[in-house]
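It is worth pausing here to work through a concrete case rather than discussing structure prediction in the abstract. The textbook approach is simple: state the sequence, then state the predicted structure, then interpret. We follow exactly that order.
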Amino acid sequence: MPKINVYLPDDLAEAVKESGVPVSAICQRALEQSVKRLNAIRAASLGDLSGTDLTVGLTNFTQRARDVIMLAITRARERGAAEIGTQDFLHGLVTEGANLALHVLRSMEVDPAIVLAEVIRSAPEPGDGTAARMSTTAAGALELAVTEALSLGHNYVGCEHLLLGLVAEPTGTGGQVLRGLGVEPRAARHAVGAALAGYVHLRANQAKEPDVAAAVTAALEPVLRRLDALEKQAPVG
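Step two, the predicted structure:
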């Protein structure tokens, strides 16, 4: 049987040894699930998108993330594109209007309105295509979004992961627009982590400091609604 080396931080490696957990079985199960998710997204993104339910294969995507993809497909068809591109994903991400990725952009001092303007400015001339498939770069961005979610230990793919996938994809217009505005992959990952960690910390401290927590909750109400929705939408397993 082929062997794959897994490198762990020293403290985690020591804890694993002390606990005696079945490392091989756990790693095998995690890898099986990851491979299934990546294969599913590849099949969905590279298939024909002319059917009725265009996001049927995106089973681990939240409803809001699927809405963004539907907006992207609509945008690509409106401009007569032959393929759905990363710029269409970014257009859908911004025009959806209420997702966590937009909060992440604002936390990085990037105005979503400017992002949208740049996407529109960079759009090619209208054509007569039907946008029945995704471009190679768009399919790659979706695959990277799944990878980003897996690396964060999430069993769902949300709009924040789509943002990370777009930034990480090296050649698509969507990533070029974001990086041109100063959104780099490492900084974006930190911003996503901070947004999620801030939510968890706030929930943990609400009972201790109700007045302060109420004020913070009011200020972050759009983000809280988004994260509450993620908890309900995230598939189990």
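Step three, interpretation. The two ends are 27 Å apart (CA to CA). The chain has a mean pLDDT of 77.
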